[in-house]
Amino acid sequence: MVTFYRRLPKFDYLAPQSIEEALALLSRYQGSAKVIAGGSDVVPKLKRRAMKGIDYIVDLKGISGLDYISYDGAGLKLGPLATVRAVERSDVVLETFPMLAQAAESMASPQVRNRGTVVGNICNAVPSADMAPSLLTLDAKVSVVSEKGSRTVAIQDFFTGPTKTVLSADEIVTGIEIPNPPANSRGKYIKLTPRRAMDLAVVGVAVMVTPENGICKDLRIALGAVSPTPIRVAQAESILKGNKFSDELIDQVAEAAAEGCRPISDHRASAEYRRDMVRVLTRRAIRELLSDEAASAQGFGKGA
Amino acid sequence: MAKSSLIGKAIPRVDAPGKVLGKTEYVMDLKLPGMLEGRILRSPLPHAEILSIDTGRAEKLPGVKAVVTAVDFPDLRYGHLVEDQTILARDRVRYVGERVAAVAAVDLETAEEALDLIRVEYRELTPIFDPLEALKPDAPRIHPEIDRYGVVFASIIKYGNVCSISSVKRGNVDEGFAQADLIFEDTFTTPMVHQSCTEPHAVVAQVEPSGKVVVWTATPAAFKFRDGLAEILGMPTNMVKVIACTVGGSFGAKNDLRLDPICARLAQKSRRIVRMTMDREEEFADGNPRHSSIIQLKTGVMRDGRIVARWARMVFDTGAYTEFGPAVASEATKQISGPYRIPNVEVEALAVYTNKVSCACFRAHGGPEPTFAYESQMDIIAAGLGIDPIELRLKNAVADGDIAPTGEPYRKVSLQANLRRAAAHVNWDSKPQGKNRGLGIAVGQWHTGGRAASAIVKMDEHGKVFISTGCVDVTGSHTSLIQITAEELGVPLADVQIVPIDTDSAPFDASSSGTRSTHNVGGVLRRCAGQIREQVLTLAAEILEARRDDLDIEDGRIFVKGTPERGIPLARASRQAFRASGGPIVASGAYPGGALPTDPQALRGLCFGTAVEFIHPVQVAEVEVDPETGQVTLHRLTAIEDVGKAINPICATGQIEGGVVQGIGYALSEEIVCQNGVILNPCGVPYLQPTARDVPQIDTVLVEDGQGSGPHGAKGIGEAPIIPTAPAIANAIYDAIGVRIKSLPITAEKIVAAIRESAK
């Protein structure tokens, strides 16, 4: 029974030339077709036989014009073929949404980042998906189409469980829209890993804060790897919002964030450690964002 | 004597261009006509009886050319130490991933499809995963037939689930502890860790029309492979030829037969050439990693720091089969006293069966585990006594004339000097302390120069030199061997080559493992080259009508000393050999191996002799710890290495850096995690070897005292650098934040928990 499969299971490889064609294929083959972009998550899963009943692979890579990273003043748009590496190195992302570039850079290796896509990272929907916490704090919107029509899903509603999303078998994500963050906001993603590269987050914390005259105008906190899905912790956010920043309140926010997650224990870390680190890293992220150096190094551009 | 010596010259490795350009061919790159692909069916269960194996459907699958199970092999058990293994499981499986059947087919897809068609009926047996459970008198027996197993060394003691127990005794520990002012008792644990060679195991096998089996494989031990193959296949040794291909990393992982006999049998059965390679997951499931260990250590000291007694009990989890367990346990009993003068010693080590992958050799087998324990405890003692850690070590460090508890003599020891060098290099006395920063030191002890080696050197009619040796290059050693030979002969480096190695044509070499290649083979080559020099100078003396003693060779030219314009190209003299009666210019030589004398009264159970001399590495780690997350940042690792003479400083430094990096992984992140016998992190991303970002500046200090017994005063170096790294880091962490972690790897989580505990 234990075979260490080196070869992929048999499937038909389909390379549609348009989204319409891709949607028709998904509709025709229903649950037995799987969409890939970079394939960096799906292909290893297929090889391990961790994904069953896939007879068709629908590869989007042949469809032109889907790798866009565009900014129109109101927000950023990422196409389904925009690679993690492209987002990491995009000038507009670095300038306007540096937290996204930071999350992208933290993932895997350059080789994998050249292959994998940001959309693929959220569609794979592991709890530790590195792009998710930043996208959650940015209130990203996911555009979804099928032959039946299109819809927009808030990223908060996109994940439904470990490796599960709201997508049905005939749907494709055609893009992510990320609205401009509030003026004077600053954000950062802290990824805790045992190893400094090529590792999965034990805890991922994304924080975006908007200070105004010592008052917290807005605060958004999202966590990865500590719940069945990446999550926002609204209860923790509300503690500081509208209040003057203080060490005491920041501690309370961090505590509430730790209470707001539901981590598991596995060989990478215990639930207790993960929860502790949510507290430590949430506090650290807020404090660092409030310091002037952090504002220039990690903050969003003024008026963005 | 103005000519510049090739010894100590930092020339680039001869194998570097091919590897850097991606042109070097490894076994897995071989493509031979009509070659089949072989794959293995493995046990899904940690412990079960095999009731039946039905290969019928697999054999009928189009494209399948052969299927083999245990019945295709002679009914024998083999092993380096205890003969408890079969090449495919015969009646029982004892770990998840154990080899049960194999298929050769026209391609990988067909082979894997065929594996899915093999039906194996199992009856599950109670598995044991914890070696301490396995030691209980009522524990189920993993090898009920253990008493009937043959042993390769009569001194091996085995019983129950114990495949070997070794002990060392000197003086009287009870008296020692009674006399001690203070007694320190600690338990340390170390994890199972993986060599993770860049190149996985791979083999290609072909059967010649004569029936001779030819195997292309990557191993540092070609002759051991040949002999093992012959035994398992039931053939005379001269009907098996092993071609030793380029090795993409071994670190002990490729010392043992694994795929090779299966591949050979598939080739015999299918009458086709067969290739087999392992996946990364298979490397973990069925490689031979380093044993995990549980080490209880008790040390009695006087207030002035003198150690007066040591007691230790070490349990090594050897997994399903003995493999190298007894050698690891034997080595650990010698290691655990460290390079320290301890009058009263009583230590024992057991290798214990469990239902996990068998463990074998990993760079310095049985070295890093006890060293982590005793060097961590040295700092615990230093803190307890209020003595500086280096002072404490200097106070107890062995010197020339001392005798180890095993009876082995210390000669030309540089430990105390190396400790002082380390202190000077890192400014130990003015520790540059920042908040949460710390310095930690640890020493190690290893040995060099064991087991036999040989070589044949030929100078051809063009004055070019060809070395034939069974010594496979796994470390860069061929570059050093070429340097030694060229230097002795006075020829350019480019005129010396090492002939590709196969067991038919190369003379015997035990293995490129055990810190021995340059030391042993280099010495042989130096002597062979000296003989060739004599022969060619004698021939040249006739041509030049000069006295032999007046001649010298430099840069491939023979000339008369004093009147250097009187000379001939070396090739002119070497051609003369075919006109004279002597025939081709050839020299051969051997090195018998050896071991230091031991005191038989002190030893019980298997005791592998320490090779011909001790070496003593010293390392210092500089760390910073984040007390909130527990994360450790390494700022610098200083490795003081007892090399005797660096034949090639690039190769020596590379070896040391590699060992240190493996030591860093051992210290901080690496651990094979098993749950119910299944490895949870069986590949490169979840198994946390250090990346370039995790490795700090490594300061390598080559101590060249010229005191080694190898060529030009060289000592062996290969394994030593991995030994002291983990305790140096553990001690630095203690220095930084005052918590002592006694269990490797020292994860961030363990540090946070320990900080919390110490705050209570």
Count of discrete alpha- or pi-helical segments spanning 4 or more residues of chain A: 13
Say how many strands of chain B there are.
Answer: 32
CATH class of the largest domain in chain B, please? Answer: Alpha Beta
| SS content category of chain A | alpha+beta
Largest sheet of chain B: 8 strands, mixed
Unreliable spans of chain B: none
Strand order of the largest sheet of chain B: 3-5-1-12-9-10-11-21
Given the C-alpha coordinates, what overall shape of chain A results? Answer: globular
Subunit arrangement of the protein: heterodimer
CATH superfamily of the largest domain in chain A: CO dehydrogenase flavoprotein, C-terminal domain
Strand percent estimate of chain B: 15-25%
Percent of sequence in beta strands of chain A? 15-25%
Structural class call of chain B reads alpha+beta
Greatest chain-chain contact: A-B, 28 and 42 residues
What would you say the CATH architecture of the largest domain in chain B is?
2-Layer Sandwich
Please state the average pLDDT score of chain A: 94
Q: How many individual helices of chain B?
A: 18
CATH topology-level fold name of the largest domain in chain B: Aldehyde Oxidoreductase, domain 4
The CATH class of the largest domain in chain A: Alpha Beta
Q: How many structural units, i.e. domains of chain A?
A: 3
Structural overview:
The complex is a heterodimer of chains A (304) and B (760). With 304 residues, chain A is of the alpha+beta class. Chain A is 36% helix and 24% strand. Chain A has helices at residues 19-29, 42-47, 84-89, 91-96, 98-105, 110-115, 118-124, 131-137, 155-158, 234-240, 247-259, 271-290, 292-298; strands at residues 12-14, 33-36, 56-59, 69-71, 75-78, 141-146, 149-154, 159-161, 164-165, 172-179, 186-192, 203-212, 215-224, 231-232. In chain A, the strands form four sheets. A five-stranded antiparallel beta sheet of chain A has the order 4-5-10-6-7. In chain A, strands 11-12-13-14 form a four-stranded antiparallel beta sheet, with helices on both faces. In chain A, strand 4 and strand 5 form a beta hairpin. In chain A, helix 10 runs antiparallel to helix 11 (247-259) and helix 11 packs antiparallel against helix 12 (271-290). Chain A is globular, with a radius of gyration of 20 Å. Residues 297-304 of chain A have low confidence and may be disordered. Chain B is an alpha+beta fold and 760 residues long. In chain B, the strands form eight sheets. An eight-stranded mixed beta sheet of chain B has the order 3-5-1-12-9-10-11-21, with helices on both faces. A six-stranded mixed beta sheet of chain B has the order 8-13-14-15-7-26, sandwiched between helices. A four-stranded mixed beta sheet of chain B has the order 16-28-29-32. In chain B, helix 9 links the parallel strand 14 and strand 15. In chain B, helix 6 (222-233) crosses helix 7 (260-270). Chain B is globular, with a radius of gyration of 27 Å. The termini of chain B are far apart. Chain A binds chain B through residues 1-7, 10, 108, 192, 194-200, 266-270, 273, 276-277, 280-281, 284, and chain B through 39-44, 96-97, 108-109, 112, 115-116, 120, 278-279, 281-282, 285, 628-629, 631, 668-669, 673, 675, 680-681, 684-686, 688, 690-694, 747-749, 752-753.
